[in-house]
């Protein structure tokens, strides 16, 4: 008896439709036409003899069985992807494709230092970057849409391997026309919490700032919420309040050309810990640790030594 198995392409189409919730967007994500994607999913339904997706003109709705099969398909695709990772891991270090998610409060400040060094030391590495908040980045990691995540701890990212990189101190930034007590590090109690400008929910730096103030009531008091650190800096420049900035952003020149002062914060949790994380038992662990070494060295303004202890 001949058994016909679903193809990886059919499973890819199904997972893309589950993620996008729209045939056109799913087709774009798979770089195929909408008719090709739709036909592939119909072939899959015919092959297994069940309806996976209820189609109407306006709504794409997965059946309960379709939901289960899409979840299983995602795991199958991740396992298939790891076959390629095993082959790459057996070859030269940091070659081939790698997908890395980076949170928005790190990407514009650290990557300009890192990418030239990576291109110089590992020219055969094709690094595809995704800038997204920590929550979606961790979800993408566990679903297999990304290979590793550059983020800031503490954050609960699930069962992952963690390679700590460096500590990133937090500074309070305020208009030059204002004064804060003393001339050195600022005590957390001296920060006017009612004037503290924060990032929107979903950015881990917001939670790190709240941890410094050791208060949860501040969530409802913030008068202004910024979509990015650059937006918040403009708010401070216009006298709308004060904010907390990571040291890497200040070092990268985010305050250049402004009339804003910044001073370190003297508090127990006035820092975030930058780290690279990846799925446990990944066959490319060696590559991720090498990448972490490059990231760590670039943050110090140094060139990482090209070493490969696994060879």
From TrEMBL:
Source organism phylogeny: Bacteria, Pseudomonadati, Pseudomonadota, Alphaproteobacteria, Sphingomonadales
Molecular function terms, GO-annotated: DNA binding; DNA-binding transcription factor activity
Alphabetic keyword roster: DNA-binding, Transcription, Transcription regulation
Gene Ontology CC: one annotated term: protein-DNA complex
Family: Belongs to the LysR transcriptional regulatory family.
Alphabetical list of Pfam families matching this protein: HTH_1 (PF00126), LysR_substrate (PF03466)
Domain of life: Bacteria
Keyword Transcription: yes
Domain (HTH lysR-type): residue spans on this chain: 6-63
Membrane-spanning ranges: none
Name of the protein: LysR family transcriptional regulator
């Amino acid at each position: 008896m001949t058994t016909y198995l679903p193809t990886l392409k059919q499973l890819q189409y199904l997972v893309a439709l589950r993620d996008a919730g729209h045939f056109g967007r799913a087709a774009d994500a798979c770089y195929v036409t909408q008719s090709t994607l739709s036909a592939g999913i119909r072939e899959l339904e015919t092959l297994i003899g069940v309806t996976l997706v209820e189609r109407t003109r306006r709504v794409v709705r997965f059946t309960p069985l379709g939901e289960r099969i899409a979840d299983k398909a995602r795991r199958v695709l991740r396992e298939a992807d790891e076959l390629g990772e095993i082959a790459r891991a057996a070859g030269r270090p940091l070659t081939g494709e790698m997908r890395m998610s980076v949170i928005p409060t790190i990407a514009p400040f650290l990557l300009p230092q890192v990418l030239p060094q990576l291109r110089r030391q590992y020219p055969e590495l094709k690094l595809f970057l995704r800038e997204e908040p920590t929550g979606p980045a961790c979800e993408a990691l566990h679903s297999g849409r990304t290979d590793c995540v550059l983020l800031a701890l503490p954050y609960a990212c699930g069962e992952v391997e963690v390679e700590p990189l460096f500590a990133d101190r937090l500074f309070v930034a305020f208009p030059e026309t204002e004064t804060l007590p003393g001339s050195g590090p600022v005590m957390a109690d001296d920060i006017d919490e009612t004037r503290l400008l924060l990032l929107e929910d979903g950015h881990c730096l917001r939670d790190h700032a709240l941890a410094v103030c050791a208060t949860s009531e501040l969530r409802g008091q913030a008068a202004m919420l910024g979509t990015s650190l650059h937006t918040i800096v403009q708010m401070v420049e216009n006298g709308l309040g004060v904010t907390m900035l990571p040291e890497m952003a200040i070092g990268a020149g985010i305050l250049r050309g402004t009339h804003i002062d910044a001073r370190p914060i003297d508090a127990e949790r006035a820092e975030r810990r930058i780290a690279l994380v990846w799925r446990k038992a990944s066959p490319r662990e060696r590559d991720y640790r090498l990448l972490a070494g490059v990231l760590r060295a670039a943050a110090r303004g140094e060139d990482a030594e090209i070493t490969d202890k696994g060879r």
